[in-house]
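Posting here for the record, re: zinc ion.
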Amino acid sequence: MGREFMFRIPEGEEFVSWIENFARENGIRTAQVMAIGSLRNATLGYFHEDEGVYERFEVEDTRELVSAIGNISLKDGEPMLHIHVSLGSRDGSLVGGHLFRGEVFVAEVYVREMEESLHRERIGNLHLWRA
Ligand code: ZN
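Prediction output follows.
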């Protein structure tokens, strides 16, 4: 295990790129990531296995970030965040998927660094961990 970090992302920042920048600036190569909070206008994805592509869909307005769980590993030598989210509506219903981007209203993030580095490589249309 490496270092642990807990931080809040400022309102208005883009969630995915902010964490990737944080990783780059702090020399984090591989880590587990968790977060809760609230996101606006998120773009999620669902991987369509037969077609081998991500179908993207927009989740408009502000949603509870009920949970976000993911990881950081190296893609082409740079830290890449891979994270899945559950987003909650006023009535408690959830939508979820692979997070491409989302604007932060509130984000409380926990990052646990790993000493060993994981690398991604392109396999078909996906960038997966090297076996
Ligand atoms: Zn994913």
